[in-house]
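Hi D.,

Good news: the full-assembly prediction came through. Inputs first.
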Amino acid sequence: MILFKYANQLSSYILQQKKDGKTIGFVPTMGALHFGHLSLVRVSKSFDDITVCSIFINPTQFNNPEDLNNYPISIEKDIEHLISIGCDVLFLPSVDEIYTEQHIKKHYELGVIETRLEGHYRPGHFQGVCEVVDRLLSIVQPHNLYLGQKDFQQCIVIKKLIELTGRNDEVKITIVPTIREEDGLAMSSRNLRLDKQQRELATSIFQELNSIRRNLHTASFDKLKAEAKERLQQKGFVVDYVEIAKTKDLSPAVDTSEPLVALAAATTGKVRLIDNVLLN
Ligand code: AMP
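Then the structure:
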């Protein structure tokens, strides 16, 4: 695996690979890699000649400074994992390398998706995501971008970013299913911060989303959402939302004639967890 710390060196390498007719797959991450991240790398490896993974904890997408300060870091282990599964390139830039003096902060016109659900509870988050992904895409110039379904709303936002920045013909997005622990908890770097009791409770989020899926046709959406929220609260979670929404834009579901997804965000201790399950 080749490790690049500087954007211009990575860009020159990519240019050469493209000249040689190679396709480039890109997996952006914030590190503390788990099997969820690695499955994205595996999918990229199965479709593309060169797989680039980036590890960059993007400060501009954290609306909560404590969350940023506590974000887990395990670079050495991450590098071992990436080598072991045959990742070709790791991009490991500093903050100054991504946000250079020439960097101009833009505003991305994301529309209503920006303020729904995660956007409502994490103001500014998706602008930060777009800022870093826009910059990373301009450095890596991939043919394929691999994203996890785990961050469902982020996938919609990044699709929009690609439209807004005129990259529709250059980059194709592939969404990879969520990888889970044996008990169903969606793998997440933040799970490392759960203590034993919180870790045991954390699987309830997935259980509630699954229960919504099973009971979709037996009760009203409002009842299903309220009951799921109530049960999570009884277990001590602070629940931001449990929502049943249309997959295309996350607007609230009306009936089952369109593809739907159940999404939840809840905090146990100081750890905020998100998850989602496709419903129909
Ligand atoms: P992160 O490091 O949290 O920014 O995640 C990097 C990428 O990995 C994003 O596209 C995530 O959606 C994806 N990802 C995170 N957790 C999982 C998971 N459990 N299964 C599949 N993909 C995931």
